[in-house]
TrEMBL record, chain A:
Organism in which the protein naturally occurs: Littorina saxatilis
PANTHER family in UniProt: DYNACTIN P62 SUBUNIT, DYNACTIN SUBUNIT 4
Subunit note: Subunit of dynactin, a multiprotein complex part of a tripartite complex with dynein and a adapter, such as BICDL1, BICD2 or HOOK3. The dynactin complex is built around ACTR1A/ACTB filament and consists of an actin-related filament composed of a shoulder domain, a pointed end and a barbed end. Its length is defined by its flexible shoulder domain. The soulder is composed of 2 DCTN1 subunits, 4 DCTN2 and 2 DCTN3. The 4 DCNT2 (via N-terminus) bind the ACTR1A filament and act as molecular rulers to determine the length. The pointed end is important for binding dynein-dynactin cargo adapters.
Pfam families documented for this protein: Dynactin_p62
Subcellular location: Cytoplasm, Cell cortex; Cytoplasm, Cytoskeleton, Microtubule organizing center, Centrosome; Cytoplasm, Cytoskeleton, Stress fiber; Cytoplasm, Myofibril
Annotated GO CC locations: cell cortex; centrosome; dynactin complex; myofibril; stress fiber
Protein name: Dynactin subunit 4
Family: Belongs to the dynactin subunit 4 family.
Domain of life: Eukaryota
Keywords tagged on the record: Acetylation, Coiled coil, Cytoplasm, Cytoskeleton, Isopeptide bond, Phosphoprotein, Ubl conjugation
Automatic annotation (TrEMBL), chain B:
Role description: Actins are highly conserved proteins that are involved in various types of cell motility and are ubiquitously expressed in all eukaryotic cells.
Superkingdom assignment: Eukaryota
Family: Belongs to the actin family.
Protein name: Actin-related protein 10
Organism whose genome encodes this protein: Littorina saxatilis
Length: 455, 402
């Protein structure tokens, strides 16, 4: 940050931070205000939730259950396996034997997909052109799927039995000793297949339920040696996939580019945020993926007064400097703000200067969306401002002066104080109709980094 | 009618299966045949763009923040399911340090508020993908190679072995060779030594050279190379080198990856060090620690997992190395086994353990084996049973070895 120019530094949103309820210090644009707990929250201390998944290309929502089934991928949109760019469908015409007269051929429209960025096409992957424009592209199937699923079925029914046995034992109140294998309950499953034949003649009923152990794979004794060409042939690097290409298709991981397949576009989700304490939503996006609106968006900036440094100042140790801050009111009600010093806290981590704050209350005018069209002649609310404290006032904003005296010899000039302000709780008002919103006082701790000591 | 019809499968509950490896993180859902994603175990700072490896943490506070970020990517970018009250299987290595696992638990339970977590040992999970309860599980990873014998479902803890040889060792071997005489061709048709631009050999470039150019050479060629390079045999004994590859460093510069680099870099895994140890010898050393009556069965059920084992030629070489080493005096008298057989899991080596996790996660017994959030919050940390047979034991062992 020190390398930035002074101007850029003073525009930095990170200079003024508010203390989040969780103890993190963040700029108010990164904080939320829960209208029910009346506490500040940040992305780190709220519960993130997945809203409905959608495809970023065709912008269609997909129900969560369907998304799960399709492994979070869109069935219609594809990415280039080389560069990740969205593939375009291209039409071409092919001569095919005519249906009326097989000796003649007629043109037929065929489709393939191509990347407009790196020029990869489905033909490079050895895929035949399709007769319909919307694909019909066959997905590869994991060759081991059957083997995995057979084994899994066997595990499942044994686990089922184990669970039933456990339930029964609960009543019999017999504690079996917990050996290592029982702790995870994993290996014991495989073990049972070994014990099973011995048990079979004892209790036919018991074993009836257990499926036979899956056919175990026969061990491999010899592996194929490297192909002899590897020692003699020149490698064409562009025919070898990158590791990232391979990992894009975890179950196939093709080493040769000719085996790359179009990748179904991965879905995205919009997140909603929920207060952990009261379970109310702090942010909920619109259902329509095309919309950039939110159903609920409780960003702190829209609810609590914002402090900014008006202009950069220079500081020297033990010398008083007057700094101007601006304070703006996002609320549609005029708001009283009190700035209170922090007594008896001398942690140099965030306080390296003494700050003399305005002793009187600061009254902020209400925020009016139409105020930008005013020519300034319209009668404003009268404020009896002390010109030594309130330097200027414009619409919902005012500038106030504070004297800062650094007590550190070098480094950053940091001040910290409390801001107490009125808050009209509109959430509570909704419940009790036409009543005035309830007036609350909120208190936030502010941390400001004013710049460096001049040496 | 199928016996399994009408069973309520717990995979309806969408169990997360997460394996945070030293180099790559594998993540997906229980009951599926492969992970949804395999991504680098790194986090990228959204403001500075700086990439940090998850395992390179200086404090648990840093690890905590980075794990939150990584898991958040996995959940909201790939799995797309709200984490609250979800069940999670965490695949972990025998060598996973306590602070790492405590941190994973803290992030999962406190930050993401998942319902329950099962920490499952990777070697046992790998065997499960084979329906087997017995075998030597060799994990050839990024930082090290680890061998754990499992007999009748129980890991023979006194016999595990590890050696710091894996993907990383190959990377540094490639780097050393490139710095020592490697040449970069620039767009101005100038040849400059690689040593003058060492920063261009990033970890990513080294990995890419390994994956796309290198291979594990044949046993006889490997021996001949080692004879010349390590044991001072005449240079004429060196096998004819494989063709070099012009490797583009970036748009304008090309580095020559010589046949020597392509063929010899992976020798790092198989050369016997001063203690006569290599990746192959590690397996025999582990076998030697096992009770004599278990060795035959173990040696005929070798399971190799880990991404580094996916290098072309690895299995063929390993088998030859084992045969040759076993005939050497130091093993011949005492080992008691001569044949080595391998089991091939229904998965690529780099996600075999994950697949085992995906199987366990799909079983109805999962909740009863897992640690619930309530139980965790009550204690504030992981209970002993989670680590009893692993950490405590490793600590003793480490002490003994020193
Ligand atoms: Zn917070
Ligand atoms: Zn789409
Ligand atoms: Zn492309
Ligand atoms: Zn709340």
């Amino acid at each position: 940050m020190t390398s930035l120019t002074k101007m850029a530094t003073f525009m930095d949103v990170n200079l003024v931070r508010y203390l989040c309820t969780c103890g993190k210090r963040l700029p108010p644009c990164r904080l939320y205000l829960c209208r029910h707990c009346l506490k500040l929250r940040c992305a780190d201390c709220v519960q993130h939730e997945v809203d409905s998944p959608y495809c970023p290309n065709c912008l269609e929502n997909m129900p969560a259950s369907e998304a799960k089934l399709k492994k979070n991928r869109c069935s219609n949109c594809f990415d280039c396996p080389i560069c990740g760019h969205t593939l375009m469908t291209r039409a071409t015409s092919q001569m095919v034997p005519s249906s009326e007269d097989p000796s003649k051929s007629t043109p037929k429209k065929m489709y393939y997909m191509a990347c407009s960025f790196c020029r990869w096409t489905t033909r490079d992957g050895g895929l035949a052109d399709q007769s319909t424009s919307n694909g019909g592209w066959k997905d590869e199937e994991n060759p081991e799927a059957k083997r995995i699923n057979t084994l899994l079925e066997s595990y499942r029914s044994i686990a089922q039995r184990e669970k039933a046995e456990k339930e029964r034992k609960k009543y019999v109140k017999r504690r079996s000793h917990a050996g290592f294998q029982d702790r995870y309950g994993l290996t014991s499953v495989a073990m049972k297949w070994k014990i099973q034949p011995a048990m079979s003649n004892l209790s036919v009923k018991e074993t009836e339920k257990v499926p036979p152990a899956p056919e175990l794979v026969s061990p491999v004794e010899d592996f194929d040696p490297l192909p002899s060409e590897i020692f003699s042939d020149i490698v064409q690097l562009d025919k070898v996939t990158y590791l990232s290409h391979r990992l894009n298709a975890p179950e196939f991981q093709p080493p040769a580019t000719k085996d790359l397949r179009p990748v179904h576009k991965h879905l995205l989700v919009r997140r909603s945020l929920r207060c952990r304490e009261c379970d109310h939503n702090l942010s909920k996006p619109d259902f329509n993926p095309l919309s950039i609106k939110f159903k609920i968006q409780l960003i702190a900036l829209n609810h609590i007064p914002e402090i900014r440094i008006m202009a950069p100042a220079t500081f020297s140790v033990n010398k008083e400097t007057v700094v101007t801050f601006t304070l703006s009111n996002p609320s549609v009600y005029s708001t009283v703000v009190k700035l209170l010093p922090i007594e008896g806290d001398t942690d140099l981590d965030y306080m390296t200067a003494k700050v003399d704050l305005p002793k009187s209350d600061l009254v902020l005018a209400l925020h009016d969306d139409t105020a930008v069209y005013d020519d300034g002649t319209k009668a404003q609310q009268e404020f009896k401002d002390d010109p030594r404290v309130v330097v200027f006032r414009r619409a919902n904003k005012l500038g106030f002066a504070a004297k800062v005296t650094p007590f550190c010899k070098e480094g950053e000039v940091k001040v910290s104080f409390m801001m107490k302000h009125e808050f009209r709780n509109t959430a509570a008002a909704i419940q009790s109709e036409d009543k005035e919103p309830k007036l609350e006082w909120l208190e936030h701790r502010i941390f400001i980094n004013l710049g460096r000591i001049q040496l | 009618m199928s016996l399994f019809e009408g069973l309520g499968y717990s995979n309806d509950k969408n169990v997360y299966i997460i394996d945070i490896g030293s180099a790559y993180t594998k993540c997906g859902l229980a009951g599926e045949t492969g992970p949804r994603c395999i991504i680098p175990s790194t986090v990228t700072n959204s403001r500075t763009g700086k990439v940090t490896k998850i395992w390179d943490y200086r404090s648990t506070a840093e690890l905590h923040e980075n794990l939150k970020e990584l898991l958040s990517v996995l959940i909201f970018r790939y799995l797309l399911m709200s984490p609250k009250d979800k069940r999670v299987v965490v695949v972990e290595s025998l060598l996973c340090p306590t602070d790492f696992r405590e941190c994973v638990a803290r992030v999962l339970f406190r930050h993401f508020e998942v319902g329950c977590v099962l920490f499952a040992p990777g070697h046992v999970l790998s065997l499960l993908t084979l329906g087997s309860a017995c075998g030597m599980v060799m994990d050839v990873g990024y930082n090290e190679t680890l061998v754990v014998p499992v007999y009748e479902g129980i890991p023979i803890m006194l016999a595990w072995q590890s050696i710091p040889l894996g993907g990383k060792a190959i990377h540094s071997r490639i780097k050393d060779q490139l710095l020592d005489g490697g040449v970069v061709k620039t767009s101005q048709h100038q040849d400059i030594p690689v040593a003058s631009v060492p920063d261009s050999l990033t970890e990513d470039i080294l990995e890419d050279i390994k994956v796309r150019c290198c291979f594990v050479t044949e046993f006889s060629r490997g021996q001949a190379i080692q004879d010349v390079v390590l044991r001072g045999a005449d240079a004429s004994k060196m096998p004819t080198p494989t063709p070099a590859i012009d490797y583009p460093l970036d748009g304008s510069r090309i580095v020559t990856v010589s046949g020597k680099i392509r063929e010899q870099s992976c020798e790092a895994l198989f050369e016997l060090d001063d203690d006569e140890r290599s990746v192959a010898a590690l397996l025999l050393d582990s076998l030697m620690q096992c009770p004599i009556d278990t060795r035959r069965e173990l040696s005929e059920n070798i399971v190799v997992v880990g991404g580094t084992a996916m290098l072309p030629g690895f299995f063929h070489r390993l088998k030859k190395e084992l045969d040759t080493l076993a005939a050497m005096p130091r093993y011949k008298q005492t080992l008691g086994v001569k044949t080595f057989k391998f089991l091939k899991p229904p998965a690529k080596e780099n996600y075999t353990a994950w697949l085992g996790g995906a199987m366990v996660g799909a079983l109805e017994t999962l909740p009863s084996k897992s640690l619930s959030r309530d139980a965790y919050l009550q204690r504030g940390r992981l209970p002993d049973w989670c680590s009893l047979d692993q950490e405590t034991w490793i600590d003793d062992r480490t002490v003994q070895r020193r």
